[in-house]
Fold these 2 entries.
Entry 1:
Amino acid sequence: MARDYYAVLGVPRDAPESEIKRAYRKLAMEFHPDRTNGDKRSEERFKEVTEAYEVLRDPEQRAQYDRFGKARARGGFGGVHPDLAEALSIFMRDFGNLGGFDGVFGGGDRERRARRRGSDVRLAVKVSLEEVVTGTRRTIKLRTMERCETCGGSGAKPGTGTEICRTCGGVGEVRRAAQSFLGQFVAVTPCPTCNGEGSMVRDHCSTCRGDGRTRRERTVELDIPAGVSSNNYLTLRGQGQAGPRGGPAGDLLAVIEVEEDPRFERHGDDLVYDLPVSFSQAALGGEFTVPAPGGPVTLALPAGTQSGSLVTVRGRGLPSLESGRRGDLHVRARVWTPSRLDREAQQLFERLRAVEGDPPAAEPSGKKFWEKVRDVLGGG
């Protein structure tokens, strides 16, 4: 069973963002691969704390996690964990420009020059209520920036390569010393010449003109689990726009929109259906067939049903995204009053009015209301 994200970082559930960030930085530096000589257990811990931090630092994802748990956090519905490259990218994104990290991690052989990440792609995916019950799959066509096939994403003309940036010497950043009333400090910023990449393309690829990307159309298969609600989202890592000159791709964020079904009201995993019944049907009761996800169901309405009364059909609602257990279908009786009466019906209701008297709660007579109704209708 996956560990609780708060426990992973060692912070309370009400921890502010600053405390979460401090806890992650401390743990990430402890388990960073460059400090543990590639130890596999430390690498797994580094990825674990990075995953927890990435969810809890974001207010929207944290709220989803607090309410629904890991299945909805990161939009993944139990999606994949970050790989080492992504975990390192997250760490350097938030802490890589604080200065001194190359000294802390010893320079190493690991590539730490900034590679610009591609943009995320956000799209809306509509699903029906029936598809919420079963889950479904969508094949989505996207037209996005993809790695150039001619140069392999390098941006360089085939047969040529890149050159080390002369401004930063290939490290991707520049440092400037400045003096303040607190003393001297060093400001570390991405190199303005190479945009933090550490290298320059001299002979540009004629296809992508040095960007390393071209716009192409592709298809993505999207598996939508049962039990989703509107505004849930699925995250497909690395399925967004490709990054320039070999940079990592962004993510694809598929926002779910559940189409309204006019037959039902949805309350979480439960559904409410309004069943119109005539006065005589409510009085006498009977069996009724009502729609439900997955096929109609038959239920018994008891005699003397009042307008607004509920009959619950267990397990015929929508599945829970967390447990898969289905909610219930609540059938609400709505007594229908005819707006027009023919002569025979009017005479019948006149006879009924003569004997029904006041509502049951104020009826002084010992004879029950429904017994009078049966007398009028000739039921003995």
Entry 2:
Amino acid sequence: MNQVATLIEALPYIQRYKGKTFVVKLGGELVERADALASIAADVTLLDHVGVHIVVVHGGGPQADKLSTQLGLEPVHIEGRRITDDAALEVTKMVFAGKINLEVVSAMRARGLRVVGLSGVAGDIIRATRRPPRSMTDPATGAVREVDFGHVGDVRSVDTSLLRLLAANGYVPVVACLAGDGEGHVLNINADTVAAAIAVDLQAEKLMLLSNVPGLLRDPKDPGSLIRTLASDDARQMLAAGTVGGGMGPKLTAVLGAIDGGVPRAHLLDGVAPNSLLLEVFSKQGTGTMVAKADEVAHYRRLIGEPDGAVS
């Protein structure tokens, strides 16, 4: 009977999201785990079979760091973003567009999906400009220094016509977070940023960022401090106050870009937890952290019987 109740609960969501587009971003740490990748592939397959159009975007940071170390190169990160010099760019091209992309495609193909592996360079999906040096403040010391990110790009334009063509013909695109500058140069872009830009251009219903943490935590050391719902204005205040650190900062920045660009809801989900995508999409309570505009958050809180407030 519980299984029947679950199906009945899922039915209105199946009806609501049929024909809609979700952009799902996988962190490289999830691809390293065969169990997590298999579970995500199963979730994506079910969503595809009930008529949801899925575009997958992936990173590959841990694998790039590992290969860099094996090659005698020291990976450098500042505020969750990779410094990409000439040697690091060669590593990211090999890992992101090669090893990781192939592994994600293979896992989803094993579930019977028709999958196409791409990077943001293909079809001019993401065109970028090389990021100029920036003044960065060390959060530990307060010292300010000029940082050259190397071959790191900022999104200049997005063209998802190739992704739309693939989706219309029953394919699931899997996009690596590399871009071109239109002059033959490849640039490394944060995968969360790429996913958000694609979600906006596709007018996606949801942006879902999967990593190995439960979502946005009040205390990064306490998994029980999960923030379940967050209005976009409150998220902006948290970023401005410097209370969001590490790799979660770029994620929340990307989420805000998607919300500002018209994506109704964005989600920070635990990709290690089994079936986290399905629980988010097909259950009233959902999972992880949902970020949306204030009226959307208030509506959701009323739906699940939570008191309204700044952060819950």
